[in-house]
Every structure is written in structure tokens, then in C-alpha cells.
Amino acid sequence: LLSLGCLLTVSCSSLVLKRRGKTEGEKKTYRQYSNGIRFSISDLSPPHSRLLKNLYRERAAISLFDALNESHSTASPAFSPEIITHVSRTLARFQSIANDFGVPPEHISVFATEAMRKASNAASMLDAILSESGLSVHVLAPEVETLFGAMGARSGFSAANGLFLDLGGGSVQMTYMNSDIPDYEVRAAQTGKSLPFGAAKLVKILENNNPEIKSTALDELKIGMHDAFSRLQQEFPLLRDTQVNPDSSGIDIYLCGGGFRGYGSILMHSDPIQPYPIPAVGAYTVKGSFFCQTSTMRKTNENEGKIFGMSKRRRKQFPAIATVVEALVSAIPRIRTVTFCSGGNREGALYMKLPLSIREARPLPLLHHGNDASAIILDTVVETIQSALPLNTDVLNIPTVLTLGLGPLFSSEIWSGSGEPSEANASFQLHHALNRDPSIPGFSHLARAILGLTLCFRWGATLGPIDQQLFISLQRLVQQANTEAVFWAGYIGEVARLLSQISPRMPKDQDQLRDTVR
Fold first, then answer.
1. CA–CA separation, 261 vs 255, rounded Å?
2. DSSP state of 50
3. What is the helix (H) or strand (E) element at residue 268, kind and residue range?
4. Which of 178, 189, 323, 486 shows the smallest number of beta carbons within 10 Å?
């Protein structure tokens, strides 16, 4: 495994770059770009490789998509010499940061997508980057881009079974993945479909004064969505079954890319639970019926004031984003749930570097304090808590810290800060669960809510008025998934509190805990 890896994507994703010595004129020039280049350094060392732990991340405000449009040539779009120089120097700077972190050159991967595929002078850009930084760039085929995007979204979950879409600046990709199917990632790449209707590109189409051009493009988008979904249904009978089987509740959809996350931010702003308790849109899940309310979301975007997670640029793009959503809804009659994913091409490329056995492992059980030796004790704590549950198989189907794979992490927090007042710990644990490990895969909003509630109960659940509002919102979120889940969060939290009372310090070994409880 790579002990330390650097990944750099020359793509069309929303970025911001802070550079020393930038003049005011340069600031104005670069601010017009909404998409750009992403750079990250990740730790893939075992035993926590599956967590794709991020060590450093930066984004540069250079939109290759916008740069091509400025060439004013639809037949042969090209990068300007200024853009080539700026990109090559930016990558050289990133390469020097990787050196500072001690990343071996052979562990650095650089890849490019849509804009580099279309540029007539892409070779000049690649040569300049190689000359300035020594880095070679891999220009991804659309199928590989679809694979990386889908696997990046898939990396955030223990298992995958659903439709995956990625909305970038220049294109939108659709594919189907079911981790129970052999070689599902290869089949996803082979059968995926890329449509040339990204958010930035569609904005220009909608702003076109020629109604015929606009109408033709929108028809192509709708037909493309229908054809892509029909093709996937032909390839995957399990997918077709979600639409034709009367006993099926529909398909689960996973969305990644800045455009779709913008739509998720509007949904979160309009969510029935207000104020919505978790700020990050990544891993936010809604029912299909709520997702389909595009008219309401359009009005919200037009009429509301400040909306968290939505920049001015993204709000300007929202009509285009909603148009893509409407085409998607039109193509898929039965949608059960929609989940917005924080992962994308970058996470997908990292994820594919891991062996299959590690890729398919559940991520959350790896997330706990301590070393391998203490992990054995934590497993004993989990077993002890499980022994306090009734022998009722229904409990296994209710989301709890145990069934979601959060047992080791929860157990490692039972004795944290034992010397502090219980009131302070309850509040701290409630907030910490919602904001901790923001880039860790597998941490759904439901998982964070249940962890926060259970830890809050462990520390007595004594909260001030402001935290009480958060506590109530989290309870409502959990009850949406299962009406009994709040009770079991309280029950497991009380069992953990009892353990901390009979054993005020974390046990040093398995036998100590068992003997103390006995």
C-alpha cells in the first residue's frame, strides 16, 4: 500500500486559491472562474487505509472549462498561453508542497478530464506542465472519469446499490453500481453514460437568446437521460426490477459534484426539520418525493436571502442544476431516496488504489481512539454493551451505534474527559459527533445523529436551552429512519454510563472489565 499519496486533479470543480503576491488585477481575473484544479495529500497506510485520511487539501481558481470558452472557437477550442503558464506554475507549486510532506514522486498522480480532452492544444499544456513541474498528466477517457466519479461516491458507504450521477461544469455522468455483483466497478465504467450538459455549460444554453437552440438542447438532455437509464436497465435486471416490480419501493440515487451538492443545500435549507442540525451536505439523504419538488426549490433559490452552502455563483447556476434534476426525475419514475455525496473523482482514484478486500471493508469500525492493543479492549466493551440488549432480533434492524458500525468509536468515548462536569461533556459530545472527521467515509447524517444522541445520554443528557433545540432536531432526524431508534440511543447511552460508574477508568484488559461487571 502507498504509505503517503498525492492526488492532483485538473478538472472542472469549484475552487479557490490563495497566492502570495497576487495583484488586485489578478484577483479580479481569477475570480471569474468558478471551477478549477484540486490538490490533496492522503494517508493510505494500513490499518486505516479504508478511511482515505486527508492530510492536506488546496484548490486553485483556474477553470479550464471557462478558459476554453474564452477562446471563442467552438470548432477548435484552445487554452491561451497565459492559462498554460498559470496552470503549469500552479502544478509546480503543488508539487513542491508534496515534496515538503515527503511524498515520493512515484506516489504522485495527476489526471485531467473534460476540458483537457476537448482542447485542441492540450499537448502544449501537458508539455508545459512536465517542463515546469516534472509531472505527467493522465487525460482520462470518459469511461474512466465515470468510474472514478462513481467509486468516489461509493467510497463513502459500506455497500452500494443504486444509481450514481456526477454533475460537473461541462458534463453529467450516470451509471449503476451494486457491490453484490462481481466486478461491479468495471461494469459501471463500461455501461456508464456521459452527457455534455454540465452546470456551467447548461447555464450558457439557458441564457441563449435563440429559443430554438435552447429547446433543442433541453430535448437532448431529457432524451439523453432516458436513453442512459434505459441502457442501464437493460444491462442490470436488478435495476430494472426497482421500476417494474410492484413490491419495490424504487431506486436509491447517489449524487456527487458541486452542482448536485448545490441542489442538496437548497433541500437542506427547506428540510422539514428546522433548523437542520448537521451543516455538511455530504451524506445528506432525502426521500424521492421531497427531491422531486424542483418548482419549490427554484422559488426558494429566487426568493430566499442567504442560504448556507450556496455561493452567488452557485445560485446563479441553480436554474441549470434544477433543469438537470428535472430531466433525471422525468427519466426515473420511482425514486426511493437520494443521497448527496462529498466524494468525487479524487476520492475514487484513491479508493481504486486499495486492494479489493480493503475497498469493501466497512469504514466506521476503523474509526476509534487508541492503537491495535486497545482495539481488543474496545471490542470487549462492545460485547459487554451488546450483552445488555434483549435477545430480540428486531433490535438488529434498528439503527444504533452497534448496528451502524460505530461501536468501537462509541466505546472509546465512554471514558473520555471523565474528570469534567457531566453537563459540559454532554454538550461537547453532542456537537463533536456532528462535526468530527468531516472527510471520513461512511459517516451518514443518521450515523452522526445517533452517535451524538447516544454519547449525550452517556453523559447524562443535561443540556442548556440552545443545545436542547439541537437535541430535539437530532431526535426528529433519527425518528425519520426508525421511530424506536431514539429509545435505543438512550438505552445504550445509559448502559455505557453504568459501565463508567462501576469502572471509572477505561479497563486495561478484557478480563478486568468482565470481572468488574461480574
1. 8
2. G
3. helix 258-269
4. 178
Of 138, 120, 129, 105, which Cα lies nearest the Cα of 11?
A: 138
Concatenate the DSSP letters of all residues of 87-123 into one string: HHHHHHHHHHHHHHTT--GGGEEEEE-HHHHH-TTHH
Q: Can you tell me which residue has the cell 472549462?
A: 65
- The β-bridge partners of 40 are 7, 57
Closest CA to 339 of 281, 393, 382: 281
Grid coordinates given for 194? 456521459
Amino acid at 363: P
C-alpha dist (Å) from residue 195 to 11, 164, 241, 324: 16, 14, 25, 11
Q: Which tops the pLDDT comparison, 72 or 45?
A: 45
Query: Quick one: average pLDDT of 486-506?
Result: 94
Of 12, 21, 19, the residue nearest 94 (C-alpha): 19
DSSP-assigned beta bridge partners for residue 58: 39
Give CA–CA dist 51/49, Å, rounded: 5
CA dist list (Å): 32 to 1, 40, 112, 118, 226? 40, 23, 21, 21, 34
Q: Is 412 in a helix, a strand, or coil?
A: helix
Q: Is 343 exposed, middle or buried (0-12, 13-18, 19+ CB in 10 A)?
A: buried
C-alpha cell at 292: 422531486
Close Cβ partners of 241 (under 8 Å, ≥ 6 residues apart)? 248
Number of neighbours of residue 235 by Cβ within 10 angstroms: 15
How far is it, in rounded angstroms, from Cα 228 to Cα 222? 10
At 100, is the pLDDT very low, low, confident or very high (cuts 50, 70, 90)? very high
Query: Which amino acid does the sequence have at 76?
Result: S
CB atoms within 10 A of CB 24: 7
* Those residues with Cβ within 8 angstroms of residue 207's Cβ, 6 or more apart along the chain or in another chain: none
Residue with the bigger pLDDT between 12 and 287: it is 287
- Tell me the pLDDT tens digit for each residue of 180-205: 999 998 898 888 888 989 888 899 89
Strand partners, 407: none
Q: How far apart are the C-alpha atoms of 205 and 99, rounded to whole Å?
A: 43
> If you average pLDDT over every residue of the chain, what do you get?
86
CA distances for 128 relative to 6, 39, 89, 212, 419, angstroms: 20, 18, 9, 41, 59
Do β-strands 335-340 and 284-287 pair in parallel, antiparallel, or remain unpaired?
antiparallel
pLDDT for the residue 508: 86
Asked whether the predicted pLDDT for residue 448 surpasses 50, the reply is: yes
Q: Which pLDDT score is estimated for 437?
A: 86
CB distance 62 to 112 below 8 Å: no
In angstroms, rounded to a whole number, what is the distance separating the alpha carbons of residues 411 and 380? 9
| Best CA proximity match to 390, nearest among 501, 512, 513, 495 | 495
Q: Are strands 161-167 and 335-340 parallel, antiparallel or unpaired?
A: unpaired
Name the residue type at position 188. Answer: A
Residue 71: which pLDDT band, with cuts at 50, 70 and 90? low
